[in-house]
Amino acid sequence: MAKRVTLEPLLWLLFSAGGVVAALVIPVLLALFGLAFPLGLSPPSHEHMLAVLGHPLSRVTIFVSCTLLLFHAAHRVRFTLYDALQIKHMQELVVLLVYGAVLVGTAAAAYLVLQLP
Amino acid sequence: MSERPTYTPFHPGWYRPRISTWWWLRRRSSLVFILREVSSIFVAWFVVFFLLLVAAVGRGEAAYQEFMGWAATPGIVLVNLVSLLFVVFHAVTWFNLAPQAMVVHMRGKRVPGKLIAASNYGLWVVTSLLVAWIVLAGWT
């Protein structure tokens, strides 16, 4: 049997890495910036945020994390569309939309991280 | 005998009953499965929300305040609350699956699954505290 080389293992690896990032850091960040600060806890100063986000290590971490999270979401959305809605016959379209969105998001993350003063 | 035997030129195809689009509502386990998968949409939303924060911080003090004001509107708070619930659900299912995904051996013995799950939860606590500390005060 001819050996078929597919991207699936790599995509699964990115999905899995993104899943770890999502589980470890999203809850605390959402709890802080999505709920605690909007509902009254005094938010960090702009100066502090700039210092935190602008640190070279943060910039790299943010870019890598966003990329992994997007790959994670893309993988799950893709298979949920196949399984739940049973649209496996529209694979090309789904792949195009989902990974197109990943590409756009990754480019946006790179730009935003680099434009920080 | 003029009649020739007929052959089906292609595979006749399997018997496949139609399955409703809503098949995953029928069983609790499949509903939980789909809800877990849906958490990914909220992961994607978080990326958008966080990148908007980064953009606002980059644009200056006024843009940052404006972002925080927008984040405090009821609609966004609600979306973030739902997102938090879904992502926590993702985290719990993810960590509970960890023992199946990683088989660790130490001194020739398999590390029990409970220990692996527990260490993942421990890591979750440590990471959360570290992130909160960086965001709130610990950085000067």
Describe this structure in words.
The complex is a heterodimer of chains A (about 120) and B (about 140). Chain A is mainly alpha-helical and about 120 residues long. Chain A has a single domain, classed as 3 helical TM bundles of succinate and fumarate reductases. Chain A is built from four helices and no strands. Chain A has helices at about 10-35, 45-55, 55-85, 90-115. The longest helix of chain A has 29 residues, at about 10-35. The model of chain A has no long low-confidence stretch (mean pLDDT about 90). With about 140 residues, chain B is an all-alpha fold. Chain B folds into two domains: about 15-90, Fumarate reductase/succinate dehydrogenase, transmembrane subunit (3 helical TM bundles of succinate and fumarate reductases, Up-down Bundle), CATH 1.20.1300.10; about 100-140, no CATH class. Chain B is built from four helices and two strands. Chain B has helices at about 30-60, 60-70, 75-100, 115-135; strands spanning about 105, 110. In chain B, strands 1-2 form a two-stranded antiparallel ribbon. In chain B, strand 1 and strand 2 (about 110) form a beta hairpin. In chain B, helix 1 (about 30-60) packs across helix 3 and helix 3 (about 75-100) runs antiparallel to helix 4. Classes of the chains: A mainly alpha (about 120), B mainly alpha (about 140). At the A-B interface, helix 1, helix 2, helix 3 and helix 4 of A face helix 1, helix 2, helix 3 and helix 4 of B.
